[in-house]
Amino acid sequence: MESTRSNLARHYAAVLCGALVLYVVSCAPGMLWQDSGLIQYRVWNNDIEGFLGLALSHPLFYILAIGAKYIPLGEFAHRVNLVSAIAGAVAVANVFLFVRLWLGRNLPALIAAVTLAFSHTFWRHASVAESYTLWAALFTAELIMLVQYTRTNRVRFLYLLGLLSGLSTSVHMLAVIPLVCYAVFVVFLLAKRDISAGNLGVVVLLCIIGALPYEILIASNMIQTSDIAGTLASAAFGRRWQGAVLNTSLSTGIVKENILYILFNFPTPNIMLLFAGCLAMFRVSLHRGLRNVLIGLLVLFFLFAFRYTVPDRYTFFIPFYCVASILTGLGASLVQERVRSRVAFYLVLMFGLIPVGVYAAAPRLAGNMQIDVGTRDDIPYRDDAEYFLRPWKTGYAGADRFADEALNLVEDNAVIYADITTVAPLLLARQVKGLRPDVAIVSGTVNSEDAPEFDAGSFECLLKNRPVYVVSAKAGYCPEFLLDNYDFVRAGILWQVVESKELTESTKNR
Length: 510
Hints:
By secondary structure, this protein is mostly helical. It has 25 helices and five strands. The protein has helices at residues 2-26, 34-44, 59-69, 76-103, 106-117, 120-126, 132-152, 156-169, 176-191, 197-210, 212-225, 228-237, 242-245, 252-265, 271-280, 288-306, 318-338, 342-351, 354-368, 384-389, 398-409, 423-431, 456-465, 480-485, 501-509, and strands at residues 415-417, 440-442, 468-470, 486-491, 494-499. Helix 8 (156-169) runs parallel beside helix 10 and helix 21 crosses helix 22. The chain is globular.
């Protein structure tokens, strides 16, 4: 028994180290755009709550990232990014361990781990500052506790499951979906008298303890605002995403995009192992409760992401990919049973590496085939096809270069309006690097502390007293009142706002 545990620990450590090498090498070394940049900005300012509603606060992730901020090694932004990389490696190793404990075989477990590690969306989020990989690490740890309980009937594993479920809730509200599945599982155990009401009480208590970081935010907001209903809505949906979360309609375009997302994450013949694993769930001897939980998770995660309508909904397939990777391991186990050839199985392992080549070639293929990746094309120092289609961010410094150049090219006391994609690098360059404290940064999301009023009523006066620039002069990324009433002159990588010639001439002619 001790020898088996020792071997399992070595195998787990080997997978963990391999995944760590992959994700540390592919991790972005500096500042980032959009959500990842805003995460870095919040970490720098020790902002655990955020400014987009409680559902997007992810407090446990920020507690850990803020801790990484104070480690005096390397660059601040790199350390924040590494939190995601390390968590991603743990999630991959956990998938290996779950399948190994479940099926008792190393090679299927390795196939499952490789499948998740090289899935595009997961790999990409392990290379930048995001909360999803930390959530995945906790979620896969929950599954390990679940399979350990089904193997041993020791209630301590249910206790750990409750604690981990609470912790994952403090990272992301995606934890609600598996929590529902676990609740049904535990209720059946209680009904069959496999556990006592006292055991259930301990599980619930530990879940509450694990979720304390999120619960404290909710309680403090209720006290501050005296708006219980509004706070609960913010905790469930954020400020403006209730419609997307509860959406039940689908368009043909969304269905096609979702199918492409899934295929791009598993661009390998091994995707057939996923279907084999799904069928095997009903044909092989499995613990009934574990089977039902896995089926429930697969279906619920798929349905949640598939009918979600937020622009970055591809990220919400990550939980589905975690479960799909596990079932791919089950499919690989069937191959190992029926094809007694190591050559065939190592061929399957090689198929698991195909995605790397696909991602490397994807930007050029997309260009040659004139495929629109659905993103904007006006971000300085960012090739969108390469940035989004290749998951690794090794050596990427586009956001740093943009912020440094933009701040250094404007006059004293200038104002820069940045959209949600570009605002974080500018703010971080001012705060972290100390660049151009005289320049004010304005956006529709978050502003620098010295930002002036920036609206249609005050802008004319502002323009007379200070030079004003925008990062983008396109609709959707620039205030409408500027597009309607002012002209733009190219100034390096920015646009300077100037008085409209037409409006000026019209005023003179009156």
